[in-house]
Design brief:
483 residues; alpha+beta; Beta-Lactamase; Alpha-Beta Plaits; seven-stranded mixed sheet; four-stranded antiparallel sheet; 13 helices
């Protein structure tokens, strides 16, 4: 018979801890090296960016700065570039990727002794998973080495036949010693009991007393063995009785739980009937993009018509040009707009429909909403810089069946520059490979529980939106209607 090595499981735990510590040290050291190299590269890129953008930064040319900054965001390590003027006002934010944060390198741009602005460049953090993927030969080799050590220990540390025999003899000697001590104690108790009950036995002859002594030793030994067996059987019976009682109690509790579960299921079915109007399995053939102003103090309705109407016309023109430029993207082939947007005091809405089954109309709605928020951010900052009236915006994307709930959600929980998404499962599948979303914290209604908040996009989506944004801004600049 083959025996395992002593404490082989404990040795395996020690090897596992050793492997984890080695991998952790590898990740930490590699991360430090990559951080130093990326920091040096970032400083060089910032210096080069300032040299290229110095003239545009002096003139506060947003379009030129956007074009220059976009070349740097194509680098894999760069997630965001922020260019500010000498008054610390943002001129160009490039690379909206909130899910990818990292180290930020800031440098002041000067022209001689005059400060003309500043540039902040954010480098993406290298994830621990990427480091492990880069160092996979070392990780796999270390794991195989620890596994080999465990196998070698299991083979070399097995007890030999001599060690097993010696251990068996020691166990037998210990058992024999304990058994003899138990027999001697039982014989002494029986002898004292018999002596106290039959005092006349002391007058027996020597041979008779010796035979009686031998019989009592044998009877005492047999008596002790039977007592131990009887005690063991009684303990087992008590345990079985307790198990049966516990099982009966558990069965009764199980019946009660079944009743509670059935009641809960009945209430759940009633609740699902009340919320069936959400229709999560509904197909998405068209979506409605709603854009409203974030007007906390009702400033728009107090504005004079001579100022309000041109501002609404600017927003309308900006949205329609955004729709036109966005639908030129090959990714959104087969998506078209069914109406021409027009901004009123309560905002504007655009309806997009799918011309075929392959058109990604839900993704087009999310991209259009995010694109307009990016454009409105630039318009708002520029107007505030020139002491002109402007309002931030918020947007919502839903299908036609849920457009009214989305309107209420924008009024109740919508925040500045926020994008809300309320789509069936088919629509969420369209956008799942391109954007990241998160749920509303502590929802109070069914629609708030089903609503999602835009939390960022992948690199290709953000780059597409940046290109379309720049194209719209160039059109507005040519028409001299951007401001």
């Amino acid at each position: 018979m083959t025996y395992l090595a002593p404490r082989q499981g404990l040795f395996a735990i020690i090897l596992l801890v050793s492997f984890c510590l080695q991998t952790l040290l590898l990740v930490i050291s590699t991360d430090q090296q990559l951080s130093k190299s990326r920091a040096l590269k970032g400083e060089q890129m910032v210096a080069q960016l300032i040299d290229e953008a110095r003239l545009s930064l002096e003139n506060k040319d947003r379009v030129s700065l956007s074009v220059i900054a976009n070349r740097y965001t194509s680098e894999q390590d760069v997630t965001r570039i922020l260019i500010k003027d000498n008054k610390d006002d943002i001129l160009v934010p490039v690379g909206n990727a909130p899910m990818q944060q990292g180290d930020t390198i800031r440098q002041i741009a000067t022209n001689g002794d005059a400060v003309i602005g500043s540039v902040a460049l954010t480098l993406k953090d290298v994830s621990k998973g990427e480091i492990i993927a880069m160092q996979w030969p070392f990780v796999i080799g270390t794991m195989l080495l620890h596994l080999l050590l465990w196998l070698i220990y299991g083979y070399l540390a097995r007890p030999t036949k001599e060690q097993i025999s010696a251990l068996s003899r020691n166990i037998q000697d210990l058992y024999r010693e304990q058994y003899n001590q138990g027999d001697q104690r039982g014989y002494s108790r029986d002898l004292e009991r018999d002596t106290a009950g039959n005092p006349a036995d002391g007058q027996l002859s020597g041979g008779a007393s010796e035979s009686v002594t031998e019989d009592k030793v044998t009877n005492a030994r047999t008596f002790n063995v039977h007592n131990e067996v009887n005690e063991y059987l009684r303990n087992q019976q008590n345990q079985e009785t307790g198990d049966e009682t516990g099982s009966l109690a558990a069965a009764s509790e199980g019946d009660t739980e079944d009743k509670v579960v059935s009641t809960a299921k009945r209430h759940s079915s009633q609740s699902s009937g009340q919320t069936s109007k959400l229709s999560a399995t509904r197909a998405v053939d068209s979506v409605r993009v709603q854009i409203v102003f974030h007007d906390e103090f009702n400033m728009l309705e107090r504005l004079a018509p001579a100022q309000r109407l041109p501002y609404l016309a600017l927003c309308t023109q900006l949205l329609n040009q955004a729709v036109t430029e966005l639908l030129k993207q090959p990714l959104l082939l087969g998506v078209s707009a069914t109406n021409e947007a027009h901004f009123e005091d309560d905002g504007a809405s655009v309806v997009l429909k799918a011309d075929n089954s392959h058109a990604k109309v839900a993704l087009a709605g999310v991209m259009l909403a995010k694109l307009y928020l990016m454009l409105n951010k630039i318009i708002h900052d520029k107007h505030i810089e020139l002491s002109r009236f402007a309002l931030p915006a918020k947007a919502g994307v839903s299908d036609d069946a849920q457009s009214e709930p989305m309107t209420h959600l924008l009024q109740s929980i919508g925040k500045k520059e926020q994008l809300l998404i309320l789509l069936p499962t088919a629509g969420l599948k369209q956008i799942s490979n391109h954007v990241q979303v998160h749920s509303i914290m502590r929802p109070t209604t069914v629609y708030e529980r089903e609503c999602a908040i835009f939390d960022g996009g992948n690199d290709s989506l953000i780059q597409r939106l940046a290109d379309v944004r720049n194209a719209v801004l160039m059109i507005e600049d040519e028409d001299e209607s951007l401001i």
